[in-house]
Amino acid sequence: MGMVRIDDPASPMIFLRSFLLLALLAASLQSAVPVPYAGKVSIDGVNFNGSAAFAFEIRDAQGTAHWRNGATPNDTISVSVANGR
Fold first, then answer.
1. Nearest to 54 by CA among 80, 78, 82, 74
2. Which of 45, 47, 69, 75 could disulfide-link to 84, CB 3.0 to 4.6 Å?
3. Does 23 have pLDDT greater than 70?
4. How far apart are CA 30 and CA 18, in angstroms?
5. Which of residues 63 and 12 earns the better pLDDT score?
6. Are 72 and 35 in contact (CB under 8 A)?
7. CA 78 – CA 44 distance, rounded (Å)
8. What are the DSSP calls for 12-59, one per residue?
């Protein structure tokens, strides 16, 4: 009682529904909306070429950081820059 037998005709549908539900859940957790950005890196008016260390934060109007790329404000990531972009 309460158990689904493997030879039950409804068993494949239950498996398929469970699989689709888990696949949709996994896809929704992995999708992220990209944040548009634009900018140019230059030093003394000359476009920068090479690897640069950047720190990114998302702040509200009061200046509170809600997200950053590292655990502390001093954590950076290396970004390749070509012709200032």
1. 78
2. 47
3. yes
4. 19
5. 63
6. no
7. 21
8. HHHHHHHHHHHHHHHHHHH--PPPP-----EETTEE--EEEEE--EEE
